[in-house]
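User: Small ask, check this?
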Amino acid sequence: MNSLTRTILILTLAVCLVVPAAAQSLAGLGAINGVVRDASGAVVPAAKVVVSNARNGIRRSLETNESGLFAAVSLAPGEGYEVSVLKEGFAAYTAKQIAIQVGQNVTLNVNLDVKAQAQEVTVTTSAPIVDESKTGVSQVVGSREILHLPINGRRVDSFVLLTPGVVPDGTFGLVSFRGIAGGNAYLTDGNDTTNQFYNENAGRTRISTQISQDAVQEFQVLTNGYSAEFGRASGGVINTVTRIGGNDVHGTAYWFFRNRSLNARDR
């Protein structure tokens, strides 16, 4: 290796270490982003933005950039998020009861009023906020479906079949996305766990999943148009997130009852 090549390699390594990552993965997590504007529609730079969730102790302090943009990344999926915006000369703004689903990038556009007109603006909503940055086709299966819908064998990934365009492929647990058999990717809390599911979902064995149904909070099924961070899948992506803790000490116990005498019978 000559001196010129060595110098180029050293400079390349230095740039890689200094330049931060421009994007953040949403696998197993979520995010809140938006633009802060005034009443005339002009962007508001250097506004203080606080994203918090009292249920799990999350608190992020941010500032809008010169384009009025803010982004809180790597947020645990859940309900009860609150976004507060403060800027001198403007009324305080607060948005409450924001829910983030796994893999979701929530877009919150903030309009600040002049302080003389209003002292504080509070928006409370439990309705989903439009994900303006979403380009793919996906569906989230929440805890309500996971805990209350009947499934055979308590395999939580069986609920993938609730997604349009996903059908059984006639083997042991293998599902087909858009007519493509196999080639699916499995993520658990942002980690690639495809190998764990491979034996069962590729129809090789009858090994059951190691994840308890009670431990799963929700999962996202990406069927088409997903971004590069969910790569290596020619079929679909099952993005699972497990339950997280909170500020209160608590626990859970479950027993899913199943008795043959209560099962439906084929005629």
